[in-house]
Design goal:
The structure is a homodimer of 319-residue chains. Chain A is an alpha/beta fold and 319 residues long. Chain A folds into 2 domains: 207 residues, Rossmann fold; 57 residues, no CATH class. Helix content of chain A is 58%, strand content 13%. Chain A contains 14 helices and 7 strands. In chain A, helix 5 links the parallel strand 2 and strand 3.
C-alpha cells in the first residue's frame, strides 16, 4: 500500500487503512511522520478527550463503559491507549486491552495501543499522529488514555481538549496528584470505585486541593463520582465533558488549541529537517572534513550553517 | 566579564574565570554553549575518568581519597559531580560535597556540582561543556561522578575515557547492574566497603556476570577491592586506571573518542540552529502566516524549509 492509497483509505474511514496508518505512525519513521503531517488538515473535527490517572483506579473500565454509552448516543469512538512505562509491563496492559476490545467490538469503534519505544519524545509524537489519524478518519470522539502522570503523559494530555483525571478512594491519590502537577491539567475529575470506603473523603480532599489551585478562566472542574464496574455515574461524566466542550467553544479555546497544534506540526517539521541534515551528511566526506576542522579549532557553528545551506540546495533541486 | 576575558582567564587556569565559566555552562543559555564550543579545541589533553554506581556505595569517599592520592602523584584534579535526580535531593548531596571540598582544598583541585534542571538533554550537554572547560583550564585529570545508572548517566559516561563502576557488598548491585546495562560501560570495577560481609561474594558474582558480557576488544575489566574510608586499595584503582589509559593509547581509542566528541560539538550546533530558527521567528508575522497555511492544508515541510533558508540569509548578513 503506498501513501496515496493509504491516505485516501484513511479519509474514507477504511479500517484496514486506519490500522496500517497507525502502524506507520507507531514505527516513528519518515513515512509515518509524512502521513500524519498530510492528514493534519483533515483533522480538527473530533472531540479529543484525555483520560489519565494512577494505575489501579479503573481507567480501562471507565473507558469501556464510556465507549458503550457514547455509542448508544450515536457517536463513533476512536480509543488510543498510551503506555509510556517500560516494555515489561506491556503484556499485562495488552491483555486488558484485548478483553476490552471484545466488549465494545463494532464497526464504529476503533481501539489501539501505543507502546513506549524508550523515547519519550517519540511516543508523544506518535500519540499526536495517531490522534490526528483517527480524527481524519472520521471518528467524532477520541479517547486518549494514559497511565500515570509522568512528563510524557502530561505532554500527551496537551493534545486533548478535555482532560479527565481519574482517582479512586484509598490510593493516596491526592498526594500523588499534587506532586505530578496533574491537578492543573484536569478539566473533569472522576472519583471512580465510589462504592468503596473513603470515597467521600477523597472527594472532599480533592475539592480542598482544587480550591487552592489557581483557576484557569471561568471553568471550575467538576468532581464526578462513578462506579464504572456498575455503569454508575457514566452519564454524569458525559454531561461534564459536554459542558466543558461547550465552555471551550464559547471561549474560542478550540480554535486556540487547533492553532497550537498547527504550530506543533511546524516545529516537528523543523526537527525533521535538522535530523535529515545529520542523516544525509553523516556518511559523506564533507561531514568528516567539518569534524576535522572543529578538532583543529574552527568554529562549529559555521560548519553547521554550511550543512543546512547545502541540504536546502540539494533537496530543492530534487523537487 | 565578557566572553573574551573569561575565555582567556579559563585558558590561563584562573579559578574565578573557571567558576564563572562553569556557571555560564550550567545555565544552559547561549553564552555558555558558545563558550564551551570555543573552548573545545583547547581541550583533549586531560584524562577524563567517570565514576558511577548506586547511591550508598561510597562514591564520594572514593572520589575524595582518589583525589588526595592523585595530588600526591603531582596531578591537578577537576571534579564534576552530576546529579540527575530530582532537585529535592540536591541539598543533601551539596552538603556532602562541601565537606569533601574542604578535605581536598588546595589550588590544584577544583570541585563543582551540576544539578538537574529537569531536562536530561540539558544536563548531559552541561556536563560535556563542564568537562571541556576543566580540560581547557589545564586540569590533567578530571573525575566525573554520577549517581545511579539512568539514561542521563550512561550518556554522560560516554564522555569519559575510563569508566569506574563502584559497587558495595550487600546492596544487590549485581542485579541492578545488569538491568541498567552498566556492565557494558565499566572499564574498571571497584568493590568498595570490601571489609564488609559479602565482599567476596560480590566479587565472585561480578566476575561471573562479566564473563557473560561480550568483551570489547582486548581489555578485560579488572575488579579492585577497596575500603575508601581507610585508604585501602586506592593505589590499585589508580594503577588500573593507568593500565586502561595505556590500553586506550595503544589502540588509538583516545583519538577515536576525541573525534566522536568533535562530532558531538557539530550535532549540538545543528540543534542550536534549529532552536534559533524557532526562537527568532516565533514572534513574527511570517510564523503566524506559516501556521495558518498549515491549518488550511498546505505542506508544513515547505514552510519549515523556508524558515531555515530565511534564517541562514538573515544571519549571514549580520556576520
Amino acid at each position: 500500500m503506498n501513501e496515496r492509497t493509504l491516505y485516501d483509505g484513511i479519509l474514507a474511514g477504511n479500517r484496514r487503512a486506519v490500522a496500517r496508518g497507525l502502524t506507520w505512525i507507531d514505527e516513528g519513521a519518515a513515512r509515518g511522520k509524512d502521513l500524519a503531517q498530510h492528514l493534519f488538515a483533515h483533522a480538527g473535527k473530533a472531540r479529543v478527550i484525555g483520560i489519565t490517572g494512577a494505575p489501579g483506579v479503573g481507567k480501562s473500565t471507565l473507558v469501556n463503559t464510556l465507549t458503550i454509552s457514547l455509542r448508544r448516543l450515536g457517536h463513533t469512538v476512536g480509543i488510543l491507549a498510551v503506555d509510556p512505562s517500560s516494555p515489561f509491563s506491556g503484556g499485562a496492559i495488552l491483555g486488558d486491552r484485548i478483553r476490552m476490545q471484545e466488549s465494545v467490538d463494532d464497526q464504529k469503534v476503533y481501539m489501539r495501543s501505543l507502546a513506549s519505544r524508550g523515547h519519550v519524545g517519540g511516543l508523544s509524537r506518535a500519540a499526536f499522529g495517531a490522534i490526528t489519524l483517527l480524527d481524519a478518519a472520521g471518528f467524532d470522539t477520541i479517547l486518549v488514555e494514559t497511565v500515570g502522570a509522568g512528563q510524557a503523559e502530561v505532554e500527551i494530555m496537551r493534545y486533548a481538549q478535555s482532560v479527565l483525571v481519574v482517582l479512586a478512594p484509598g490510593l493516596g491519590d491526592d498526594i500523588q496528584a499534587i506532586k505530578a502537577g496533574i491537578l492543573e491539567i484536569g478539566n473533569v475529575f472522576v472519583v471512580n470505585k465510589s462504592d468503596r470506603e473513603g470515597a467521600d473523603l477523597t472527594v472532599r480532599s480533592l475539592r480542598g486541593l482544587l480550591s487552592l489551585t489557581p483557576e484557569s478562566g471561568e471553568w471550575s472542574p467538576p468532581i464526578v463520582k462513578t462506579e464504572a464496574d456498575h455503569d454508575v455515574g457514566i452519564d454524569q461524566v458525559i454531561d461534564a465533558i459536554e459542558r466543558h466542550q461547550m465552555y471551550l467553544r464559547q471561549h474560542h479555546r478550540l480554535n486556540d488549541l487547533r492553532y497550537r497544534q498547527a504550530e506543533h506540526v511546524l516545529t516537528q517539521s523543523l526537527d525533521d529537517i535538522r535530523n535529515e541534515v545529520e542523516t544525509d551528511f553523516r556518511q559523506q566526506v564533507l561531514w568528516k572534513e567539518a569534524v576535522e576542522k572543529i578538532l583543529s579549532g574552527e568554529d562549529a557553528s559555521r560548519y553547521a550553517r554550511n550543512l543546512f545551506g547545502l541540504w536546502l540546495n540539494a533537496t530543492a533541486r530534487e523537487e
